[in-house]
Amino acid sequence: MTMTYEFIQIAKAKNKLTSDYAVAKLLGVTPQKLSNWKKGESEANSTHTLKILQLAGISVDDALRRIEGGFASVSLLTVTGITATALTYWNSIAASLYIMLN
């Protein structure tokens, strides 16, 4: 399971959406693209990442805490399926968002 998957699932539940199709429609992407993000086959760009976090009701700071604090150890990265590349990617997205918001 990737962090993107987790955030999408939170967004889905928070917005009472019953299908990935509905989530994809809200994000303005195809269901296949959403599926690829969830499986870790590709990564959402910064615009879509921010949209996912907004739909999930998760602040950028909270997302960073979840990524860095809760999933920083190698064993947790392995268990959750988060790769070092994905972690670096989320950190770069967060840095970009921080710059854009400040």
* Portion in strands: under 5%
Which radius of gyration do the C-alpha atoms yield?
A: 13 Å
Distance between the termini: 31 Å
Helix content: over 70%
Helix and strand pattern: HHHHHHH
Structural classification = mainly alpha
Note down, in words, how this protein is organized.
- The chain has 102 residues and is mainly alpha-helical.
- It contains seven helices and no strands.
- Helix 2 packs across helix 3.
- The longest helix has 18 residues.
- About 10% of the residues have low confidence.
Relevant terms:
single chain; 102 residues; mainly alpha; 7 helices; 74% helix; globular
Briefly characterize the structure:
It is built from seven helices and no strands. By secondary structure, the chain is an all-alpha fold.
Write the layout of secondary structure elements.
Layout lengths: L2 H12 L5 H8 L3 H9 L6 H11 L3 H10 L4 H7 L3 H18 L1
